């Protein structure tokens, strides 16, 4: 046992080339710069973060609020500067911290726009804070030549490989469900709508295509990291990564996620490969990393805790009864990507306790289209909205308002049914980790 622990520690802290870490820093920074510019250019700062009257918050983060419009643009301006700082290795640590804080802050404002790749970006940017990714090919080295290094501890590169491995493997495990493999859902619904695509569109009219894509997607996600780790299959595996993510980009609206993953997996390639990408010749580098790294115990403990959480948290859904896709208890932050076709309609009723009069809520008065769409199929957002309505109508003079909802939801082409108990006053229920008993069972 002690020998195994010693071997693991030795592997974590052995000296390896800094080249993969440098290219990862530059590529990740460039991707985030593009993504941030894209977000601003599409007008999403205003439409997603400033304009809405209500923001659906993450459990435990209701204190995170949007700033006034000009300050929100200031946050994104700081985010852009941080991206440039990461790319150039200029005041790198400060830039990495600034990017992590500004990006994560903007994503915590409204759960409506949650995407797995936003979570991935927050995790990676957090890890970047603690690695010496500015010790070569950076403006920091130009300012302080003593920073130059040609080698770094292996863990500074391995943590990014492990984080990427978790994303893919858990996405593969998530696809090992009855609807995905046996019914080829939701691809049976989605693919026939893509027959107009040039060259390949004709294959999507065949039902067998949905089954082939479902099984191929599961196998790809589950095993791709193993093939990326093995030198003999690495190039073919990377070609598969590019093909897979190009197809998902063509077929589905999932933002920059395909590009991010296609570029980030380059970290699996050898140091020699990365040295060909960026000229890290010995004349520009300093001495090798010293073999004695301080705080080995602390670093190891922190890494174990961080990744133990990453490995365990996606399984929390097992603590809840009911169908995960229906209740969505434990669904987020578990790398479940494009696994279901779910849609709902939600009608809310507010009742005055004094007069007994009950009225229908005009949802469009409070929510934008995307907020209403997401709220109408996610129980925790339904609950948040009910509490918002109670507070709103109480201010309008309604006496002790009660709020109930009739929510009809369809999942993977099944007939729609009630999602929550329409007789329950949702405004009296507090959200938490406990089972949501007011969610009705899927028939």
Number of domains: 2
Relative strand content: 5-15%
The helix/strand class is alpha+beta
Order of helices and strands: HEHHHHHHEHHHHHHHHHEEHHEE
The tally of beta strands, per DSSP, is 6
Which spans of ≥5 residues are poorly predicted at pLDDT below 50?
A: 282-291
Based on Cα principal axes, name the global outline: globular
In DSSP terms (H or I, runs of 4 or more residues), the helix count works out at 18
Q: What does the largest sheet look like?
A: 4 strands, antiparallel
**Widest sheet: strand order?**
4-3-5-6
Mean pLDDT: 94
The value of Rg in angstroms is 24 Å
Q: Please give the alpha-carbon distance between the first and last residues.
A: 50 Å
Helix content: 40-55%
Q: TL;DR?
A:
By secondary structure, this protein is an alpha+beta fold. The protein is 51% helix and 7% strand.
Which labels suit this protein?
6 strands, 18 helices, four-stranded antiparallel sheet, two-stranded antiparallel sheet, alpha+beta
Structural overview:
With 443 residues, the chain is α+β, with helices and mostly antiparallel strands. It folds into two domains: 2-318, no CATH class; 341-428, no CATH class. The chain has 18 helices and six strands. Helix 2 (19-41) runs antiparallel to helix 4 and helix 2 (19-41) packs antiparallel against helix 13. Strand 3 and strand 4 form a beta hairpin.
